[in-house]
Amino acid sequence: MSALHAIVIGGGMVGAACADTLARGGARVTVLEPGPVGGGATAASMGHLVVMDDSPAQLALTARSLELWEALAPALPPQADYHTCGTLWVASDDEELAAVEPKRQAYLAAGRRATLLTAAELSRTEPQLRPGLAGALRVPGDSVVYAPVVARFLLERAGATLRREAAMALTDGGVRLAGGVVLRADVVVVANGIGAAELLPELPLRQRKGHLLITERGAPAVNHQLVELGYLKSAHGGDGDSVAFNVQPRPTGQLLIGSSRQFERPDRDIDWPLLRRMLRRAADFLPALARTSALRVWTGQRCATPDHLPLIGPHPHLDGVFLATGHEGLGITTALGTAEALGAQLFGEPSALLAHDFTPARFGRVPEAIHA
């Protein structure tokens, strides 16, 4: 009996994780990636492996994914720069600090460690932060990683056949490539981020642009990934352009600085006024940043859904087509959990993640797609 043949569209972090899981399940895997492996949204990510608790489903997916990252870490090459630095969710005032305890309890219920830092403890832990902050939630198990290296590692481990060609359309039982050739497969996994919106325009996907900046060496020393506690509530809660404080220490002595959000901006241009807002926000929390030089600035495109949860599972109308997209800013964190959930659906294996509905069908009637 021949092995199941799977085509994975997209060689980023999510596609590579899915290819690895499919191969470990016995599938013969072909990956379609016209650009560099991990060169799209994966390369434009901060590589933050973080537990998030905006919904029970998100908490379950991120917490399980962190467990899978911890299991994978010993096998990763040194170039992956996997480092457990933890996250500090910084509270600016008493209102934000009041939100810490429910967040801490949610993390504990998910099996993650989390502790409250008073204002004095925060100052001693991260002395570069400005005075007057109210405290923080410390999540010591969060990590950072250089995701493009991990994507290449997982594809090599999977033994996947990598074809440097773009998928132009889905066909009945396969994929039509840019050159017109049709590849047949038992299963097609669409894992190419916002590119899925071109292949399957009926899906509820939105494009979200973000900016990142990395400093030169010798930046202010910080010990944790630092994120403002109002990250979603006050800074990224709406559809308008927004910025938030999010700084990550790198092993090189640099700082990676985010974050910004702009919807329906498909270009890759630098929005300099928005970038200045982002940096002013960062310097408000870390004043020494104002004396630090930038080495590089770039942008990336995320793929978002209306409820900020990814699409993982079968297309409602296309037999053999599965989705693994719509991860917005959590694609690196949740790639391994996504692959586990996908593998559980395909191979009938157990996974606690199946208790939550990540399938496209949760949005009600998704219009039927038209095959090429």
From TrEMBL:
Pfam families in the cross-refs: DAO
SUPFAM superfamilies tied to this protein: FAD-linked reductases, C-terminal domain, FAD/NAD(P)-binding domain
GO molecular function: oxidoreductase activity
Keywords: Oxidoreductase
Domain FAD dependent oxidoreductase: 6-343
InterPro entries, alphabetized: FAD-dep_OxRdtase, FAD/NAD-bd_sf
PANTHER family with a match to the protein in the record: FAD-DEPENDENT OXIDOREDUCTASE DOMAIN-CONTAINING PROTEIN 1 (PTHR13847:SF287), SARCOSINE DEHYDROGENASE-RELATED (PTHR13847)
Name used for this protein in its record: Glycine/D-amino acid oxidase-like deaminating enzyme
Organism per entry: Deinococcus humi
